[in-house]
Amino acid sequence: MTEVNRNQIFELVRDALVELFEVDADDIKPEAQLYQELDLDSIDAVDLVVYLQNQTGKKIKPEEFKSVRTVDDIVDAVVNLLKAE
Questions:
Q1: What does the alpha-carbon distance between residue 66 and residue 63 come to, in Å, rounded to a whole number?
Q2: How many CB atoms lie within 10 A of CB 7?
Q3: Residues 6+ apart with CB under 8 A from 54
Q4: CB–CB of 81/62 below 8 Å?
Q5: At the fourth CATH level, which superfamily is domain 6-83?
Q6: Cα 45 from chain centroid (whole Å)
Q7: What 3-state DSSP class applies to 68?
Q8: pLDDT (tens digit, 9 = 90+) per residue, 42-66?
Q9: How far apart are CA 57 and CA 35, in angstroms?
Q10: Residue 16 CB: number of other CB atoms within 10 A?
Q11: How far are the Cα atoms of 22, 24, 28, 41, 74 from residue 32, in angstroms, in the given order?
């Protein structure tokens, strides 16, 4: 994936949340709070990072994900990661 496309990355994150944590796809909106609304915990966040690393082929540093609170924050983090190559 050479061109960074926010919609594609949102879909990747949405698919990961549905597949890994059985989150209802209708609940996954850019502004959705990961911990409050989607019921993720810190272990889930680690699993999500591992999944996204596998999908993007990029190493994600845990500190890059410490500040994420919403689905859109994850999308931003992945976009920045892919742009950094």
A1: 5
A2: 8
A3: none
A4: no
A5: ACP-like (1.10.1200.10)
A6: 9
A7: coil
A8: 899 889 989 999 998 988 877 777 8
A9: 26
A10: 21
A11: 15, 12, 6, 14, 11
Q: Under a CB-based contact definition with an 8 Å cutoff, are residues 29 and 70 in contact?
A: no
Enumerate residues 6+ apart whose C-beta is below 8 A from 44.
20, 21
Domain ranges of the chain: 6-83
Please state, in angstroms and rounded to a whole number, the distance separating the CA atoms of residues 31 and 27. 10
- What digits encode the pLDDT tens for the residues 60-73? 877 777 889 999 99
3-class DSSP state of 21 = helix
User: Looking at this protein, which amino acid is placed at residue 65?
Assistant: F
- pTM of the entire predicted model: 0.87
Whole-number Å distance between alpha carbons of 62 and 28 = 22
Instruction: Give SS3 for 60.
Output: coil
From the list 55, 58, 65, the residue with the least C-alpha distance to 83 is: 58
